[in-house]
Amino acid sequence: MLRLDDITHSYNGRRVIDGITVELAERRIGVIGANGSGKSTMARMLNGLVIPDSGRVLVEGRDTRKDAKAIRRRVGFVFSDADTQIIMPTVAEDVEVGLRRSGLSAAEIADRVDGVLRAYGLDGHRDHPAHLLSSGQKQLLALASVLVTDPAILVCDEPTTLLDLRNTAAIERRLSALPQQVVLLTHHLHMLAGYDRVLVLDEGRIAFDGAPDDAVAHYTELMAPRGGPEPHA
Amino acid sequence: MSTVGLYVPGDGPAHRAPAGAKLLVLLVAVSAMLLAGDLRVALAAVAAAVLLYPLCGLAPRHVWRTVRPLLVFVAVIGVFQWYAADAQTAVRVCAQLVAAVLLAGLVTLTTKVSAMLALFERLAGPLRHVGVRPDRVALTLALTIRCIPLVATAYRNSREAYAARGLRGRPHLLVVPVIVGLIRSAEAMGEAMVARGID
Ligand SMILES: Nc1ncnc2c1ncn2[C@@H]1O[C@H](COP(=O)(O)OP(=O)(O)OP(=O)(O)O)[C@@H](O)[C@H]1O
Ligand SMILES: [Mg+2]
């Protein structure tokens, strides 16, 4: 359960989040909007990577301003660029490193690592250098490395932006199979079919909040050229 | 690009041996060779090291890959020793160097970084009392190794960006874009680590 309470945020004096209040309890939540509309900034607030200038963000009742560390254990985060999410030299080690401080025994850790590697089709690459995987495999690894810690909520910021259709479909499948609550930011609108709720952000505000089809229609309308000068962003 | 001297999967005897034992053997073997200070011992050490690679399940190309980065360095030292001492000393010193590097390579090629770091954390454990956090140091080392391919990628990207505009990206022109690229990667990596609770 996520709650944003009248949050605002500015970078260098410019408002990028401009008064968002919303409660997110659904299992599948999409967030769409133009480049620069504030999606990533809002997403980073969900696990305390960004603290709002004003207002508060509550995750399972806890305030990110006070409990960021505990909240990060509950909220997994997947970014677009898999390369920068890989920390350790080999595939299995990278999955493992997130469990270093979990308090689990070595056997339990090995068990869990095996489990996710198998689930993500990476068990054949256990000891391979992670940076030599294909982009699709790297993103699967990033997802596996986050999910091995068993977060309650998963936030994905454009996880398929750098991937081809096949790998996008692979990530899409994995996401839809997850029991967790998922907040997905994406420009791949088709991924949101079947989602419970989709928010459209526009200039730091929620411009629409509802079913996927209606949200996409609203967003398409919002993005339609109006005869003015071409936007530069 | 494959990272120099990094773990090669396998299940030979050296792969199964614990990291600590391998390091101890390495230390003893190299010290003995240096203490002997003998040309024949040094040459025998090189031969033994080369033979150990296939015995440990490593393809011969790993021998070459391990020594190749060192060749210029060895040549310079060889010439210097020849000039400062004599030919025999030059050969002995070069052989000692090559043997030591090959043996060390045998350890790194058969030991996972995580196993090495775990050993390091254990050995550096006592430093905890003087305020050093061994796990932090170990993580820093792992990240350093991880960043080698990132640097290579940043370098290739900026060279290609120059080439795409019909310019020749001379090395000194690449310094700034490479550093900018690395800072961007480092920021993103830092964020990903915080998000994964590794901080
Ligand atoms: N760390 C930062 N420092 C300064 N400005 C930032 C920073 N992060 C984001 N911004 C600015 O805030 C605004 C919103 O950015 P944000 O990344 O949240 O947008 P977004 O909706 O995720 O866009 P995109 O679809 O391009 O990912 C943009 O104008 C961006 O330039
Ligand atoms: Mg974004």
Keywords:
heterodimer, A: about 230 residues, alpha/beta, Rossmann fold, 6-stranded mixed β-sheet, 4-stranded antiparallel β-sheet, 7 helices, B: about 200 residues, mainly alpha, 2 domains, 9 helices, globular, binds adenosine-5'-triphosphate, binds magnesium ion, Biotin transport system ATP-binding protein (chain A)
Number of strands of chain B: 0
pLDDT averaged over residues of chain B = 85
Series of H and E elements of chain B:
HHHHHHHHH
Distance between the termini of chain A: 33 Å
CATH class of chain A: Alpha Beta
Shape of chain A: globular
* Main β sheet profile of chain B: none
Number of strands of chain A: 10
Number of domains of chain B: 2
Radius of gyration over C-alpha positions of chain B, nearest whole angstrom: 21 Å
Strand adjacency order, main sheet of chain A: 6-7-8-3-9-10
Number of domains of chain A: 1
Oligomer: heterodimer
N/C terminus separation of chain B: 28 Å
- Write out the distinct hetero groups bound to the structure: adenosine-5'-triphosphate, magnesium ion
CATH-defined superfamily of chain A: P-loop containing nucleotide triphosphate hydrolases
Instruction: Tell me the radius of gyration of chain A.
Output: 18 Å
Order of helices and strands of chain A: EEEHEEHEHHHEHEEEH
Largest interface: A-B, 33 and 27 residues
Structural class of chain A: alpha/beta
